[in-house]
Amino acid sequence: MTRAFVCGCSGVALTREERGFLRDAMPFGLILFKRNIDAPDQVRDLIDSFRDACGDADAAVLVDQEGGRVQRFGPPHWRAYPPAARFAELGLPLERKERLVRLAAALMGRDLHLLGVSIDCAPVFDVPVEGSHAVIGDRAYGRDPHVVAKLGRAAAFGLRDGGVLPVAKHIPGHGRATVDSHLDLPVCSTPLDILRDTDFLPFAANADLPMAMTAHVVYTALDAQRPATLSKRVIDYIRDDIGFAGLLLSDDLSMQALRGDLRGRAEAAFGAGIDLALHCNGDLAEAAAVAEAAPMLAGASLARASLARQWRREAIDFDPVEAWAEIEAALAIAA
What we know:
CATH superfamily: Glycoside hydrolase, family 3, N-terminal domain
Oligomer: single chain
Order of helices and strands: EHEHEEEHHEHEEEHHEEHEHEHHH
Strand content: 5-15%
């Protein structure tokens, strides 16, 4: 049995207090940040100790590894991958871009799989617009929702090729946000018919993917009072209209877009219909508050988690040197 939340930890090794918390709280997973990463063997030891503390050899380990500004694993031990926008901007046919995106994602997935990481919180399916905040920016595969849908899908299947599960983010769309949800609450007042054809389209086109992460964004066309993560109306819309049936993970509950104490935030998110609550900053007292609000993973949420695990497969056999050379050649020609 596991509890329906994901937590962080404070450093490159678990403290005695963290081990005790993990043993008692039984989280679904652990999410890693740069503060937790030094070298490959250290990361493997940290992951092994996390799973040992939980008593679950299959406990999930997550990370945000998108490329560009958002990659927790980087030089000198791992490659520096280009941002999503770099692929979108290549003067190549869409099918060629899809191949390059899938190769890059497969390489990232392979990096993670070799360490024991099982879930990558990528790709980004958001569609930035003129005047929106740069928090998404070049993390997106351009501004054409149809292209974003196709390149994001290529990335998701590339991660699967590398042996990890993808997480589509940030459903139903963070691209129009004019403030950074890490620091404030974005409010989107765009009419629903426009949102359907733009922001929501990449998610609807990829509703069969196994996992997605919610956006801390208010969509006044659906719920003028609550951000998606805490809104039953928006979560119902994600399920019924966008058609996403997979495992739904909240964005980080410690972000300043949300108000109130951590237990209240988690209770509101579960009340809205998310499957898993995410808490990232490694603050043990806050993580304990989220754990207190989190139910055991059961029912429909457990079924979705099981289906997500089945969607993942063993990494395919490919030559990483040849794959990276192909990507570098395409980027060099474009430059």
